[in-house]
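Minimal example, chain plus guanosine-5'-monophosphate.
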Amino acid sequence: MTSAELPEFPVPGDVGEILITSEQIQARVAELGHQIASDLAGEVPLLVGILKGSALFTADLMRAVTGPVEIDFMAVSSYGDATKSSGIVRIVKDLDAPVAGRHVILVEDIVDTGLTLRYLLEHLSAQGPASLRTCALLIREERTSREVEVDYVGFAVPDAFVIGYGLDVAQRYRNLPYIATYTGPT
Ligand code: 5GP
């Protein structure tokens, strides 16, 4: 198939405003990586990415940590309405190795209510990590109270459904290099 025959991507009408460009993401990820390396100098941070949304962010963040670092992943599924967080989370994939004594940073794609992250924090803190921090690529700017404190924040975004750089709509558009509003069919 030549490129001329490829269907148009993204599908026309699906992507609204580009809120954060690829360059802005990479610059901020580099800053966060340096910050984590300096906050945990002398330690080996364990980045715990929450699949699937934070897979791209976690990989880039790991590359940006200028020192020893490890990664692991957890996968969760939320009960109830897919568009509204219930805070009741089922762990679909747990960590490969115990986190007791480790300096853990939970890495989320977007924190909205914070209910998902709070559940995971409680789950991991019960295992006795040496420290437990949170990192989110995105938080909602309108939300003044969240269930959790986010220690490392990439960007604040408005109250619109966003896609790209790991964030999906029905599993699509995770591969967009930027963060944009979704304006396609729901
Ligand atoms: P919370 O539990 O903080 O309310 O919701 C966080 C989860 O909801 C995120 O990990 C993500 O899976 C999903 N989510 C919330 N807002 C958005 C959004 O604008 N776009 C996408 N793709 N997922 C979102």
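The chain has one domain: 20-182. Residues 117 and 153 are 13 Å apart (CA to CA).
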